[in-house]
Amino acid sequence: MKKVTAVIKPFKLDDVREALGAVNVSGMTVTDVKGFGRQKGHTELYRGAEYVVDFLPKISIDVVVNDEDVQACVEAISKAASTGKIGDGKIFVTDVERVIRIRTGEENEEAL
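Above: the chain's sequence. Below: its structure in token form.
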């Protein structure tokens, strides 16, 4: 099993959710996050004073899928989240050793 974490622009969340649903991803965790990469933030003007916004608002989406579903999941996220501009985000794929559904005690693939 793999955990796919995607950090995307907030306005792309609905597109990504729909794209993941189309490839049979049954659940996800969504978190509001802030950060920066090459985008490096930007300068804003507030009440006549200039200040730097270092951390930009992003959305982090976590899904756990079977190994054979990883490529479809990554492709769905990439296509749905892409604007072609800087700051589109990143996708991280990591191994998951064990999953347990708390309610039933089911483990691993059965728990997904």
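The mean pLDDT is 90.
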